[in-house]
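Structure catalogue
Derive tokens from sequence
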Amino acid sequence: MSDEKPAREPIAEDARIDALEARLKAAKEREDTRNRPQVSGTDANYRSGNRVLADLLGGILGGVIIGVTIDYFAGTSPWGLLVGLFLGIIVAFRNIFRMASTQTESASDDE
């Protein structure tokens, strides 16, 4: 109809495909860096395990030390040690159960 050339010459098909592939590659790289897991510091499970171990050992050893001290000053040879040991075990397991229940509640709140 008209003999005029368009204002812009069309881009060759290969150049458009190459440009699209380059943009897709750049978008994939951005997405990969954005979705990369952000691990900083110590793993939460490792910290939880260490806390359980510390509560268990601290409760038992604390109960034993208190029991032996009571035995030494009161002269009740094995009974202070046994009572202190059982109280230490009870306190340790109570702390572990409390820690486990608070983690479960916070995990259900996140979902």
Q: What stands out?
A: The mean pLDDT is 83. The helical segments are 13-35, 44-74, 77-110. The two ends are 64 Å apart (CA to CA).
